[in-house]
Amino acid sequence: MSKKIIALLLAAVSVTGLLSGCASPSTKANVQGTGKPVEIEFWYGLGGKLGENMQQKIKDFNNSQKEVVVKGVAQGSYDETYQALQAAIAANKAPAAVLLKNDQMTALANKKVLAPLDDFISKDSSFKPDDFVTSFYNQGKLGGKLYSLPMYGTTQVIYYRKDFLAAAQVKPEELKTWEDVYAAAKKLTKTNGKDVSVYGFEPMWGPDNLMDMALSKGAKILSDDKKTVTIDSQEWVDAWEAARKAIFDDKTMRIHSGGQGWEYWYATIDDVMKDRAAGYLGSSGDQGDLDFSKIVAAPQPGWNGHAAAPVASAQTISIPAITDKDKQQAAFKWMKYFTSAEVTADWSMKSGYIAVRKSAAEVPAYKEFASTHPQALVPLKQANTASPSFIDPTGGKIYDALKKAADKVEIENVPAAQALKDAKKEAQAALDAVAK
């Protein structure tokens, strides 16, 4: 999950009296022929500015038509929303719509407690599923059915200092491969005696950036039959070893690690903004923290012979299966509104996250915004060809093994081959245990 979302969730949730973890049931659904709107609850774990933006979107939707009234119920976080939802389903009091992380949605869909959306979509000729960013839309598919729609997305892109690149006669559009980036990092690195005064590039601590690099080299996490962990393949080793060499041998890259919360993340951004690094790899949601008079954004590259394939993921909206049919229809109307090109474009402009519709780029207000904020289009461009978010069948143990391996490579200077071999052994044991 993006660091900006988590940081916002740590803020106090500033909403009216809708803060209960499991709100009371909505007003009785519209009785046919009465003309009264159907009232539904929508649960979401957003606070701070994102929470305020969501409240405004709910208000705008309610004012745009007379058939449905959405009552927003803000929870403390995504995890609190998920916990409250499970309790509500057990008590037969679920909301009509809920914002979930992708792994949460998948877990609930596997339990058959979410309503498939396919019938709503097949009956709505104006919906246009092909207009969604493909990697975001496919997150909702499971067992041949669609259980969620993406509300907004994020991916990690590269940010460079314009002045540093110009001084080194490096053009960002020429950095088409990771080989180009590593070569440029050598040109951009500056030393003061034996000490490095400016690093050429800084990846973010942890496995995510390294995973993006490996996927962009053609690597896979699991075999096609999903029975074998493949994180020790040559593609993985080559991608991770390139990072290790840059950090420890060439000293052209640096990793900030540890600290409280997102301390390492902001330390990395500070290096770029305060003349200690020429670029870094970070979230699309970082754009609100950056000065684009100094910074230029660019999509992640691939490697020689391989197309770029970094991960792009989305937060999704679903309908619990126990929801009454009329409220399900009302919930889908709200979902369709929020994921429309105009609304998702506006959400992107105000939040820094990725619009989920390809046609958002053609919305006049967004086009005007992008003309003065060209960095806004970079995450959307990358997301259109990105890898989907990995759903760990072991409940997180494969990812945990990769986290340990990343620390070995980035902090302990352990060769990538050894670190990934150890990770493969741990992850395969976890996968085998699940299969039994």
Fold and architecture overview:
The protein has helices at 3-9, 48-64, 78-90, 102-110, 118-122, 134-137, 162-167, 178-188, 207-215, 234-249, 263-273, 325-338, 341-351, 364-372, 377-383, 397-410, 416-435, and strands at 38-44, 68-74, 97-100, 141-142, 145-146, 149-161, 190-192, 195-198, 279-283, 295-298, 312-318. Helix 2 links the parallel strand 1 (38-44) and strand 2. Strands 1, 2, 3, 6, 9, 10 and 11 form a seven-stranded mixed beta sheet that branches. It has a two-stranded antiparallel ribbon with strand order 4-5. The two termini are 30 Å apart. It has 436 residues and is α+β, with helices and mostly antiparallel strands. The longest helix is centred in the C-terminal third of the chain and has 20 residues, at 416-435.
Characteristics of this structure?
436 residues; two-stranded antiparallel sheet; D-Maltodextrin-Binding Protein, domain 2; disordered N terminus; 42% helix; 17 helices; 13% strand; 7-stranded mixed beta sheet; alpha+beta
- Report the end-to-end length measured between terminal Cα atoms: 30 Å
SSE pattern, N- to C-terminal = HEHEHEHHHEEEHHEEHHHEEEHHHHHH
Low-confidence stretches: 1-32
Content-based structural category: alpha+beta
Number of strands: 11
What do the pLDDT scores average to? 89
Strand content: 5-15%
- How many discrete structural domains? 2
Please state the CA-atom Rg, rounded to the nearest Å: 23 Å
Describe the global form.
globular
Helical residues, percent: 40-55%
* Count of separate DSSP helical elements: 17
The description of the largest β-sheet is: 7 strands, mixed
User: Quick one: CATH class of the largest domain?
Assistant: Alpha Beta
Question: What is the CATH fold-level name of the largest domain?
Answer: D-Maltodextrin-Binding Protein, domain 2
